[in-house]
Predict the structure.
Amino acid sequence: MNCQRCGQETLMPFQCSYCGAQFCSQHRLPENHECPRIGVAYTQRQETVADSFAHPRNSYGFSVNFGQPRRVNGRVYFSQREIKHLIVGALLVTGVGLSYGLGAIWDSTAILVFSALAALLTVSFFTHEIAHKVIAQKQGYWAEFRLTTWGTIITVLTLFLPFKLISPGAVMISGPAKLEEIGKISIAGPATNIALSTVFLGAAFIPSSYAWIFDVGAFLNAYIAVFNLLPFGILDGFKIYSWNRKVWAATFALSAALAAVGYLRYPF
């Protein structure tokens, strides 16, 4: 996940015991990340120092928890902060979908087309992210969706550009995970898009005046799966590839095949 002060990706986040946010090792202390509860931190330190003179033990009472504690019984939950981030993220993704209509004549047909596109983009993106979250929390890890600074900026910029890049945020996961667990959490997102693409593609063969909507949904989900399965950087594909190359190869091949079929049937 990314440090909430500098944005740097860190595989071993530290949770501030005062504000609850997570940071890299450089910004883990309250004074280094402008903690909104810095006053409480200073007060506790002073009390601890005073207590140490009367009862000599430690002279520094600040403690940092490594990541977030594991949740009991794998309960799936949404915090109020996460819900706010999800709402803003959904509005941004919906805006990207509607932005395809910039310059178009917004008659009844255009409204239907671009509204359907916006809805498909939003559902496809957040189904992918929520799948990561559910699997991670079922395994007992802290996992919540968070907007990222650069991701949000890039998403906003693409509202006005001909090419689109949707990445307002991602599900942040914390806890001492094993490689196999990381792989299973990572594959949940692309697998969900593959399932949606398959369902949409099947529905597109049913005679209907709205079959084109399902063709678009099939292509978008296959495209999202292929992109995220690339075995590079912080993408899901790299984690899956590191865990099990055969699973990665099979998943990537299936998503690529769906993307190819979806591209041939893409109505625009």
In short: Residues 76-265 form one domain. The two ends are 37 Å apart (CA to CA). Residues 46-72 have pLDDT under 50 and may be disordered.
